[in-house]
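Render this sequence as a predicted structure.
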Amino acid sequence: IPRRTAASRVTWRRSLSSLGSFATIDPKRLSAANPHRCPNLLGGEWNFPARTSPVIDPLNGEVFMQVADTSREEIKPFVESLKGVPKSGLHNPFKNNERYLLYGDVSHRAASMMREKEVEDFFTHLIQRVAPKSDAQARGEFVVTRRFLENFGGDQVRFLARSFGVPGDHGGQFSAGHRWPYGPCALVTPFNFPLEIPLLQLMGALYMGNKVVLKGDSKNSVVMEQMIRLLHACGMPKRDVDLLHALDGGVMHALLLEAQPRMTLFTGSSRVAELLARDLHGRCKVEDAGFDWKILGPDVGDVDYVAWTADQDAYAYSGQKCSAQSIMFMHDKWVEAGLEAKLASLAARRRLEDLTVGPVLTVPNERIEAHIAALLTSVSGARVAFGGRRLSGERAAKIPSCYGSFEPTAVFVPLESMLASEAAFKLCTTEIFGPFQILTSFGDAELPQVLEACERMDHHLTAALVSNDPLFQNQVLGATVNGTTYVGRRARTTGAPQNHWFGPAGDPRGAGIGTPEAIQLVWSCHREVISDEGPVAKGWVTPEPS
């Protein structure tokens, strides 16, 4: 056995003390020959229901995980776990205040552990195995998550519950507004960001004093299983979070209807969001789909940079971001500058080998092809700008047929044709959650038509206004509503960092993520406590009734 150097011994010990404290899987060895079993977490104990179900490797179709598959008959303990939480939460400004400090410590310890390269590599590779994206995309997701935890170390958790006071009408009267937890809560998150979205929302809920049952996508909820184990190792109370796996979406729906959590946060499709809002009688917040637009204004410049940003916005992680660029309105001057050809050239660089393009986990090839065909046959002047074919080669052939494997694709549609009828507009603004976007162009006189299109869209998550012209900026910003809007030459549609609000606008159910304001909005409500202690004036007598 070769002798370790002093430096290697330190590295080995750090790896043992960090990964060894929580990890139960080796992402690099995860395969059909070395599968992982992913359990539920209930009442602080990891356990399996009567049945597990196979999860296939999105890169080759082999079964590489068995995930707990909870049935409707097995949800009662989860229901009872939620119902055992009071409406006043696990902590609030008057109760168990030390838990604010505890979660500040947990965040600090977790962020410190995540600073270790072994831990960063572990989660980066695990994300890539179950949600295939490039190293830069997977590592970026991890870094945003770590920075979020760094932001809420120390006293920052109790600062989230900061109260305010107002003097009353007379001596001894004082009103104070407090941020109050909901108590029993539920969190339902999607497949595309298996670490960032669930972790940021989960910690926000816990910071404010809630207990949470978490349901992610079973295809890759192993990432949060491992993250929760890390949080346990950093001191998080094990009973604060229950983790449920179920391949049948109806299981979580049944749990929500029976347990009736005081607040449910759902991130995912608009169809499911509407269903939950109805069945939960509005006791929910949603961050649903977005058909996200980008407008390139009349001031052309930095063409290569703008083209690169557009390529990243539309095709990074094969377009599987709720903030992905869905449609780009190009001023005619950008068309004259050759932007479309630059976009085609950039898209052609993407390769399955480095996962800059990869499996599309919710949209099969047949649906993408049918959508392209419908555009070409139903919308006058529509044409395939580039792409339009399935990925080819030995690696692409191994991707399971239930998943998509498609080239980065753009279809150009004349603006006039898109607006010609309701059917044409609906078709052109149908979201394809994959490497697909609509391109169109406009002249100076057609900006009102561009703004009409933005007004007619149903969902308003992200947007980008690529222009440094302040008058043009004001005209567009004043007529639109998207909750996260980037403005300027470097504007993008994608990007959900920890340093600014990310969420939709124009919907009272809209949820944000990442910032103190988002956490307070989503995971707490307002409670006013009015103190009125006197003294009662000397000589006071009972007045006449009023």
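Summary. The longest strand covers residues 173-180. The two ends are 92 Å apart (CA to CA).
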